[in-house]
Design goal:
globular, alpha+beta, two-stranded antiparallel ribbon
């Protein structure tokens, strides 16, 4: 809420509604839908105010928090799917750094944020993503068209690299929230 007040978008977000939904333990789908609608409203307000850089920073921050939560989930209960999801983020991270770079010359806080993400990117150099492109084949099975083949990928990420990614995301989030 403090961040929303500083950005002067606190009138856009209905925090009471969100808090009520969380306390009532409503369905995750409903909460996700409401959060998405709220984020779209924030996005529009920031665009209207000419603050598109904040939209990109919010996107990157949300991604970073999601990565951190995925790492936390893996740390608590290791699952291969979570490990693969963390590895896949190598591609997203590269794109986010590129997107943020459009604003770094004008905003020093974005430049500092990029520097932190670039350290995370160095850790991700230990993640290997191998693509295997095969021709797609369409078959009719029981009256349904089924597509087989296409591009597949293999993600190789070791446990040490995953721990380093987890630690770095935790550090970036803590420092960012403290304004460092």
């Amino acid at each position: 809420q403090k961040i929303n007040q500083k950005l002067r978008i606190d009138s856009v977000v209905n925090f009471k509604k969100l808090q009520t939904m969380v306390k009532a333990k409503e369905g995750l789908d409903t909460l996700l839908m409401v959060c998405t609608i709220e984020l779209e409203r924030i996005n529009q307000v920031l665009h209207d105010k000419g603050r598109t850089e904040l939209v990109v920073v919010m996107l990157a921050g949300g991604w970073l928090k999601s990565l951190h939560l995925t790492c936390e989930g893996y740390a608590q209960q290791p699952a291969e799917l979570l490990k693969i999801r963390v590895g896949e983020q190598k591609i997203i991270l590269e794109q986010l750094i590129l997107l943020l770079s459009f604003y770094e010359a004008k905003y020093t806080y974005i430049q500092k944020f990029i520097e932190k993400l670039e350290i995370l990117d160095k850790i991700y150099k230990n993640v290997t993503i191998t693509f295997d492109k095969k021709p797609e084949m369409r078959k009719e099975i029981n009256g349904q068209i089924v597509v087989e083949g296409g591009t597949t990928w293999q993600i190789d990420i070791d446990n040490n690299t995953l721990k380093q990614i987890h630690q770095k995301t935790k550090e970036i989030l803590a420092n960012t929230l403290e304004g460092k």
